[in-house]
Amino acid sequence: MALITRTAGALHRRPRLRLTLLLTAPLLWLAALYLGSLSVLFVSAFWTTNSFTSEVVKVWSTDNFHELFTVPVFRQVILRSVGVALAVTALCAVIAFPLAFYTARIAKRKWRPLLVVAILTPLWASYLVKVYAWRLILSEGGLADWMLKPFGTGGPGYGLTAAVLTLTYLWLPYMILPIHTALEQLPANLLDASADLGAKGWRTFRSVVLPMVLPSVAAGSVFTFSLSLGDYITVQIVGGKTQLIGNLVYSNIELNLPMAAALGTVPVVVIVLYLLAMRRTGALSSL
Amino acid sequence: MQLSRSARIALRVAAGFGFVVIYGPLLLVLVNSLNPDRSASWPPSGLTLHWWSVAWDNSGARQALWTSVKAGLGATAIALALGTLIAFAVARHRFFGRDAISFVVVLPIALPGIVTGIALNSAFSTVLEPLGVGLGLFTVVVGHATFCIVVVFNNVVARLRRTSGSYEEAAMDLGANTFRAFADVTFPLVRSALFAGGLLAFALSFDEIVVTTFTAGPGVETLPIWIFNNMTRPQQAPVVNVVAAVLVLLSVIPIYVAQRLSADTATGSRV
């Protein structure tokens, strides 16, 4: 008992000691295990492999990065991946905005929390199940074909379009939520003031609502963009022959780990650049 | 805000469309699990519960479920311990590198899963394998815990920020020592945040496929890996349908409980 009291006293008097005890285990885990292996991976991007034995040759060279920028296939895939990520982000924003506007400002006040839950629940449905759902929809003779038959066409089938649609579906909640929160927190008196000054709905929307909500759209886009950029499972399941950067990384792991590592730096660098760009909009503080 | 009648109607229609987009595919999964055919053609030729009983007896799916539960529990336990420690350090202390820590906690989930996956994979195979620890359930747990820390951290840190340290100080003024103050005052304050964070961590681990792919040894198959491996096999299609439908129904639970427990998790966001 005395020992416990003494330990408690010692801990209380020494905040530094307390902090050290708190941080030792988690920092060992995150810094040594996670950051350590990450840095080894990125260093290995500067190694090469023996093309006969596939063994890693630990000699420093920038060949992989040189290849990354000069081999046309790599360039195409990188551009396509960024294009897909931007398209998914734009689609998410277009679908999310009216939905969030409805749940935050139009729906009856007592229904709003329930509607938010209704949006949240599918967020926690399994990633794979959601992709599977789209595999069903887009399958031959599936729901998409059936719905479009009266119009004389079929569904898009598996391919780039399917990948964009599925990724949009997957990350949609990440866009809806921040926009909903921003719209809900919009002070009513600003809108009243705008109306008092003679602005009609559309003008108020453009000059008051939109500028105040844009940082949240940017915050949501951080998720939709980076999650789309790194994905390779969805593309494998519904993308047909489409290749994105994640697929290239995946297909290089067995035979050429250094090249896979170099390819892996691409989404990381692009995401960091995207984050820096978004920081200027004030998006990161509303994450 | 004054909106014209037509603008209101247009927004209602657009929102309705949004909800159809969100729920349509999940409903389709449920309906498809009752489809007597093996193909996914629409509309189904009838409705049957036959495949549900077939799936119930599928040992592969059961085993995968069990593996997922074990991995999830292990990862959640580690994430709860580490995430809470960091949350207390960040919320109750000022020190050099505090912002960097918040950043490093988010990193495993912000970077593409494949990058985290191959980094951990090569670390495990170069460091652990020479020590005789091969890839297996243990490495899956370690991998999952790494990105689960963030949800526990976020929940607990949000709670700690809202409850000032003055309660603990008051307890200590009344004679409680550090441990007593923690047990009687601090812990009850953060308990529900811990529970909510743990639940979300478990759900996150339960759903993870990419990091699992790279950290699981041969023979270790979690439920998402099982679904992925069986998705393209026509023979297994009906069982995959049922498993998918079950997961849709189960996904309601963690978000419902987390919602009830703690207002901090209202966003349910991963970050």
TrEMBL record, chain A:
<keyword id="KW-1003">Cell membrane</keyword>
<dbReference type="InterPro" id="IPR035906">
    <property type="entry name" value="MetI-like_sf"/>
</dbReference>
<keyword id="KW-1133">Transmembrane helix</keyword>
<feature type="domain" description="ABC transmembrane type-1">
    <location>
        <begin position="78"/>
        <end position="278"/>
    </location>
</feature>
<dbReference type="GO" id="GO:0055085">
    <property type="term" value="P:transmembrane transport"/>
</dbReference>
<dbReference type="GO" id="GO:0005886">
    <property type="term" value="C:plasma membrane"/>
</dbReference>
<keyword id="KW-0813">Transport</keyword>
<dbReference type="Pfam" id="PF00528">
    <property type="entry name" value="BPD_transp_1"/>
</dbReference>
<protein>
    <submittedName>
        <fullName>ABC transporter permease</fullName>
    </submittedName>
</protein>
<feature type="transmembrane region" description="Helical">
    <location>
        <begin position="77"/>
        <end position="102"/>
    </location>
</feature>
<feature type="transmembrane region" description="Helical">
    <location>
        <begin position="157"/>
        <end position="177"/>
    </location>
</feature>
<feature type="transmembrane region" description="Helical">
    <location>
        <begin position="208"/>
        <end position="229"/>
    </location>
</feature>
<feature type="transmembrane region" description="Helical">
    <location>
        <begin position="114"/>
        <end position="137"/>
    </location>
</feature>
<feature type="transmembrane region" description="Helical">
    <location>
        <begin position="21"/>
        <end position="47"/>
    </location>
</feature>
<keyword id="KW-0812">Transmembrane</keyword>
<feature type="transmembrane region" description="Helical">
    <location>
        <begin position="257"/>
        <end position="277"/>
    </location>
</feature>
<dbReference type="InterPro" id="IPR000515">
    <property type="entry name" value="MetI-like"/>
</dbReference>
<comment type="similarity">
    <text>Belongs to the binding-protein-dependent transport system permease family. CysTW subfamily.</text>
</comment>
<keyword id="KW-0472">Membrane</keyword>
Automatic annotation (TrEMBL), chain B:
<keyword id="KW-0472">Membrane</keyword>
<dbReference type="GO" id="GO:0055085">
    <property type="term" value="P:transmembrane transport"/>
</dbReference>
<keyword id="KW-0813">Transport</keyword>
<dbReference type="InterPro" id="IPR051789">
    <property type="entry name" value="Bact_Polyamine_Transport"/>
</dbReference>
<comment type="similarity">
    <text>Belongs to the binding-protein-dependent transport system permease family. CysTW subfamily.</text>
</comment>
<protein>
    <submittedName>
        <fullName>ABC transporter permease</fullName>
    </submittedName>
</protein>
<feature type="domain" description="ABC transmembrane type-1">
    <location>
        <begin position="65"/>
        <end position="258"/>
    </location>
</feature>
<feature type="transmembrane region" description="Helical">
    <location>
        <begin position="71"/>
        <end position="91"/>
    </location>
</feature>
<keyword id="KW-1003">Cell membrane</keyword>
<feature type="transmembrane region" description="Helical">
    <location>
        <begin position="103"/>
        <end position="124"/>
    </location>
</feature>
<feature type="transmembrane region" description="Helical">
    <location>
        <begin position="9"/>
        <end position="31"/>
    </location>
</feature>
<feature type="transmembrane region" description="Helical">
    <location>
        <begin position="239"/>
        <end position="257"/>
    </location>
</feature>
<dbReference type="InterPro" id="IPR035906">
    <property type="entry name" value="MetI-like_sf"/>
</dbReference>
<dbReference type="Pfam" id="PF00528">
    <property type="entry name" value="BPD_transp_1"/>
</dbReference>
<keyword id="KW-0812">Transmembrane</keyword>
<dbReference type="InterPro" id="IPR000515">
    <property type="entry name" value="MetI-like"/>
</dbReference>
<dbReference type="GO" id="GO:0005886">
    <property type="term" value="C:plasma membrane"/>
</dbReference>
<keyword id="KW-1133">Transmembrane helix</keyword>
<feature type="transmembrane region" description="Helical">
    <location>
        <begin position="136"/>
        <end position="160"/>
    </location>
</feature>
